[in-house]
Prior knowledge:
Order of helices and strands: HEHHHEHEHEHHEEHEEEHEEEEEEH
Helix content: 40-55%
CATH class of the largest domain: Alpha Beta
Strand content: 15-25%
Structural class: alpha/beta
Amino acid sequence: MTAKGLFSIVLVDLLLPAAIVLNIYLHFYPILYGCAFPRSPSGAAPFRLLSLADPQIEGDTTLRKYDRLIPSTESLAALPLPQRIPAQAHTLGVKARKYGKMLDLWGNDLYLRHIYRTMKRHTFPTHVTVLGDLLGSQWIGDDEFFRRAERFWKIFEGAEGVGGADLARGLATGEWERKLIMMPGNHDVGYAGDISRPRLNRYEKAFGPYNYQLSFHPPENASFVTKPELRIAVLNSLTLDTPIWDQSLQDESYEFLEKLEKGWKEDPAQATLLLTHLPLHKPARICVDGPEITYFASHHGGGIKSQNFVSEDVSDKVKGWVFGRQSKGVIMTGHDHEGCQTVHFWDEEREAWGVRTWEGWNGDTKKVVREVTVRSMMGEYGGNAGLFSAWFDYENNEWVFEYTSCSLGVQHIWWTVQVVNVITAIWAAVLVLWHVVDFLIMIPAKKKTVPEEKKKQ
């Protein structure tokens, strides 16, 4: 067998089939996994929320650590030769890792964009939310913040944030599939102990408002007098606990909660969907994260430095103000990258709120608040996307909520597909060039053989 024949076999029998199979998986994984929004008995749910959490876009700060490890040209030149050669080798290694990280950041942006575009294309959401931690660090300057924000909008290409006109209208009906409903995460603006007005201002400038309410109404039913309403409340939960750096920021969040409480009705035709970043309190071993709050040192203000959940006391207040004790609703959060599903219910015997895992709950679902902590869409956590459906059951006079999820797989799958595509393309190009060269070589050879054959005749 010739070398060219071997090249052809590798291309046709190995590379092309592998590229086809991998690309089919990458671009059609929602279909292959049967990912779809839960459907109502009458068909597609009128409210379909594509839920994404914690993309955490990294940037210059992750590259800067490599720059600090690279010595200057002058300092290298000043070293004796026996020391200079190992130092130069070390410098080349650091530079290689830096360029590798730059490639990783570029690929991560494309990976996240692929998840968003593919899920939208195959599942047809009516609404989209990104549940905080849009960026990877609150400790960055304005220039870096807005550079990452620009990358964020390239990842979510074609989307736009909720604007002032949307808030003035107050309705989340109509053409909303292009809008992103977002709220700040701790990596965007900080926890209570370091959150500040300038950080929230730049967040709002780049991504839109927080602490607001919208209303969604399902298609009308002529036999139903009351118009069902799904309240969509977007809350900045990072400012709810104390000690806090800026008290005015906490006041804003509590004023918004008061408005939600005043707008609550003891009516099954009204339900609330609370979107926020920090999950509400749960006892240990309910989710991967347990309850934990750490604080800055007193000379740094003594405020909250980090927290896994909103504190227990504040969580109970939020549930009472937003949902009442005998109301149905849903909370969707991010923050815990592993994801978690729980049920909050009012325990009449203890006269206190209780929490159970969703899988372990076997009680009535008509008067509970379901909390879905959406697993992160980062590659390390499988590129997850949540699919939340809501519809109003006119026969039973109640809102129905269902949730499922869909994952692409770790980022190495995306990279594998791209590498196989590049190798296949190069392999095919080399093979085509090989054939072209052989063809061009054969033409002169044929021209020479023709006169010789005529002479023999």
